[in-house]
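Inverse folding, one chain.
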């Protein structure tokens, strides 16, 4: 059974983006927007940059699918790899979780969190589908991850 850890969102608002084989987290600091609203924006010369690069990925990813759950970012396969990793946002560490079957190749697949009632708050159910070319049999995978 493949188990995938949940990622818990922090109390600050986070956004994630991917560029040049690296993930970045944009953090909205509490109270920052109200401070900026009080100042005359035409007189402001200081830029606020809350974008933080994450450590390099263990393996390059293209078109990876990610799910944020608790303190972890789950990275689920991509166009050039079938591996899945967890990135712990507080520890700033990657951890190998599992791999899709070796005969599966993705070309833009989709991973979503299933909205199942969980008895364990540290578990998450994921559904992965699509991504196969038109002449290849379509496959759907489910994964349970425990943080």
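Residues assigned per position:
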């Amino acid at each position: 059974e493949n188990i995938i850890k949940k990622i818990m969102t922090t109390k600050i608002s986070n956004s994630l983006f991917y560029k040049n084989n690296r993930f970045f987290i944009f953090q909205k600091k509490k109270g920052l927007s109200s401070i900026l609203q009080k100042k005359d924006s035409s007189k402001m010369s200081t830029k606020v940059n809350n974008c933080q690069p994450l450590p390099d990925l263990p393996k390059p990813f293209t078109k990876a699918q990610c799910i944020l759950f608790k303190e972890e970012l789950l990275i689920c396969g991509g166009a050039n790899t079938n591996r899945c990793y967890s990135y712990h946002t507080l520890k700033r560490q990657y951890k190998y979780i599992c791999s899709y079957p070796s005969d599966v190749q993705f070309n833009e697949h989709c991973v979503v969190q299933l909205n199942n009632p969980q008895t364990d708050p540290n578990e998450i159910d994921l559904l992965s589908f699509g991504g196969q070319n038109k002449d290849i049999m379509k496959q759907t995978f489910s994964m349970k991850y425990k943080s």
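The chain has a mean pLDDT of 70. The chain has one helix and ten strands.
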